[in-house]
Design brief:
two-stranded antiparallel ribbon, 4% strand, 354 residues, 13 helices, mainly alpha, 6 strands, globular
Length: 354
């Protein structure tokens, strides 16, 4: 005797799965064709992977700001890209002054440390100002209200910096720091046909160090425990004696400090600084946070590195134009939202929010 289906077939699910299978087959076909064709050598892929890790570290540091704020307030701070821009922009004037005075050449390490500290401080001040003026009064408002406010704050900061400093491109000066005979900031070396810039390794290591420091703070300290408690339930945390406003301020400050540090590292190899420079990295970092699982700190780290590597290597691996890297990045976002809406590692949900 035949058994009948227990329910109707989900046609939408079948269509989506079919589209996903077609895309997957296309990707595999292009990948095999490119590798079999031998158009590019191993050195090309290695160079792109090294750059992808550095770029991914930048995305991950910015993404942590998105995921921290979302984990505490359940809002997307779309002005975070401008926090990244603001710290980098202010720090430009410090490193430019060091360059003019000769201090950058004579004491490059101290100059870079001072520049990073300036960027982090400026980003924190901007973030805390936004939190106090724009976000705190709307903490109990429907989620759409602070979201729209964040978009408005993003545009406000862009045009404020444009009005204050003009539309011209600022260029970070060339910086050189020799360690064991290797210029780790401004050097460019040819190793077996592979062009290597040591600054990419520096950016990657600095990003990993900052992310590990954040992870230890969140998981091993009293303040980190308070942050996790507020993320679960703000009202209950307040009843238990936790200062919710203080935790929120600290969360914004941590995310902004990481964005400021990422901005200087980004500018050291990208050089150019403009009032719109935060838009694309901000959107890419948000994409990275969603890819990894927004609200999940390890997910933001993983999403950042994955997106950086994908942008850098996928166009070559698939035999596509490098200008299509943005299409690949946002295509990955769409696919993840379709097949795994909670991200690669899953979104961290409290019972109240779920």
């Amino acid at each position: 005797m035949r058994r009948r289906l227990s329910g109707p077939v989900d046609v939408t699910q079948l269509v989506v799965s079919g589209i996903g299978l077609v895309i997957l087959l296309f990707v595999v076909y292009r990948l095999v064709a490119t590798l079999m064709g031998g158009t590019y050598g191993v050195s090309t892929y290695a160079s792109q992977a090294i750059f992808g890790l550095a770029q991914g570290g930048i995305y991950a540091l910015i993404a942590l700001g998105y995921t921290l704020v979302y984990g505490i307030l359940f809002m997307i701070n779309f002005a975070h890209g401008e926090i990244f821009m603001g710290g980098t922009y202010i720090a430009y004037f410090v490193i430019a002054a060091f360059d003019r005075s000769g201090f950058l050449e004579s004491n490059p390490l101290l100059a870079i440390v001072a520049t990073v500290a300036t960027a982090m401080t400026a980003s924190v001040i901007l973030a805390l100002g936004l939190e106090r003026i724009a976000y705190r009064p709307l903490r109990r408002a429907p989620r759409l209200v602070p979201l729209i406010t964040a978009i408005g704050a993003s545009l406000f900061l862009q045009y404020a910096f444009r009005g204050l400093f003009g539309t011209g491109v600022k260029v970070y000066p060339d910086t050189h720091l020799h360690v064991a005979g290797i210029d780790i900031l401004g050097g460019r070396y040819d190793i077996g046909g592979m062009v290597v810039r040591p600054i990419y390794f520096v950016v990657f290591l600095m990003a990993v160090t900052l992310m590990l420091a954040l992870w230890i703070l969140v998981q091993k300290t009293k303040m980190g425990k308070a942050m996790r408690a507020v993320a679960e339930d703000k009202d209950t945390a307040a009843l238990m004696g936790i200062d919710v406003d203080r935790v929120v301020v600290l969360t914004f400050a941590l995310g902004a400090a990481l964005a400021g540090a990422a901005g200087v590292m980004f500018a050291l190899y990208n050089k150019q600084v403009t009032h719109t420079m935060g838009f694309i990295p901000g959107i890419k970092a948000f994409t990275a946070a969603v890819l990894g699982g927004i609200g999940n700190v390890p997910g933001a780290m993983l999403g950042g590195f994955f997106l950086g590597l994908a942008e850098s290597t996928f166009p070559t691996l698939l035999g596509l134009d490098s200008q299509l890297k943005d299409v690949i990045a946002f295509g990955l976002l769409v696919l993840v939202l379709i097949f795994r809406p909670t991200g690669i590692l899953g979104e961290v949900l409290s019972r109240k929010r779920a």
